[in-house]
Amino acid sequence: MKKRKNIETSRLILRPFELSDTQNIQKMAGDYAIADTTLNVPYPYKNGMAEEWISTHQSKFEAGEQIIYAITLKSNHNLIGAIGLTVNKRFNRAELGYWIGKKYWNNGYCTEASKAIIEFAFINFNYHKIEATHIKRNPASGKVMNKIGMTLEGTFKEHVIKWDKYEDVKSYGILKSEWEKIKNV
Q1: Sorting pLDDT into bands at 50, 70 and 90, what band is 184?
Q2: How many C-beta atoms lie closer than 10 Å to residue 58's C-beta?
Q3: SS3 string of the chain?
Q4: What is the mean pLDDT of residues 16-21?
Q5: pTM (two decimals)
Q6: Half-sphere exposure of 106 (CA within 13 A, CB side)
Q7: Is the pLDDT of residue 1 over 70?
Q8: What residue segments make up the domains of the chain, in order of their start?
Q9: Which helix (H) or strand (E) holds 133?
Q10: How, if at all, do strands 129-135 and 93-100 pair?
Q11: Rounded to an integer, what distance in angstroms lies between the CA atom of residue 56 and that of residue 54?
Q12: How does pLDDT run across 118-145, given as a tens digit for each residue?
C-alpha cells in the first residue's frame, strides 16, 4: 500500500481524508453555493455519500488514477475543503479540481492549496501537463487558475449541463516546463 504524504504550506496542511471528516464534508460540500458552480459535487449531499467517496481514495491513488486531499488549516487543523487531481495516464496529464467551504472563501486558501498540489504532482509524478476547467459563471475559480500560472486555453460553449441548463466551460492548463520557469516566483 502506497502511503500518501501530507503536503504543507505556510497556512495549510493537505492530508488524506479520514472517516471522521464526513460530517464536515457533508455540511460544507452540501452547501448549494458549492454544488452550484462545481460539476462533481452532488446536491443534495446525502448521508453516506462522504463515506463512499472517501472509501475510494486510497485504491484510486494506488492505481494512479486520482490524488485527493483534504485542505486543512495548519493553525487548528479544521477541514476547509478538498483538492485533487484526476490522472490521464495515456497522455501523462492530470486535471485539477477543488472546492472550499463558503465560510473560507476569499482568503487565498484555494490558490495556496492549488500551488502546493501542482508542485507535488510535477515533482513526484512528472506529469507533462496539469489542466483545469471552470463553469464560466464562476470567475473566482478562473482567478485561482491564473494565479497559479495556468493560462486560458479556450472556452467550450454550452459544454456541460448543470441544473438542467447548458453551461459554458473555460479550460486552463500549465505545462511542467512552464511551471519550472515560474515555480520560485
Answers
A1: confident
A2: 16
A3: CCCCCCEECCCEEEECCCHHHHHHHHHHHCCHHHHHCCCCCCCCCCCCHHHHHHHHHHHHHHCCCEEEEEEEECCCCCEEEEEEEEEEHHHCEEEEEEEECHHHCCCCHHHHHHHHHHHHHHHHHCCCEEEEEEECCCHHHHHHHHHCCCEEEEEEEEEEEECCEEEEEEEEEEEHHHHHHHCCC
A4: 97
A5: 0.96
A6: 2
A7: no
A8: 7-182
A9: strand 129-135
A10: parallel
A11: 5
A12: 999 999 999 999 999 999 999 999 999 9
* CATH superfamily ID and name for 7-182: Gcn5-related N-acetyltransferase (GNAT) (3.40.630.30)
pLDDT band at 49 (very low <50, low <70, confident <90, very high): very high
Contact 87, 97 (CB under 8 A): no
Is residue 7 pLDDT above 80, yes or no? yes
Residue with C-alpha cell 473555460?
Answer: 170
| 157 pLDDT more than 90 | yes
Cβ atoms of 130 and 95 within 8 Å: the answer is: yes
Q: 136 near 97, Cβ under 8 Å? A: no
Query: With contact defined as beta carbons under 8 Å apart, do 73 and 11 qualify?
Result: yes
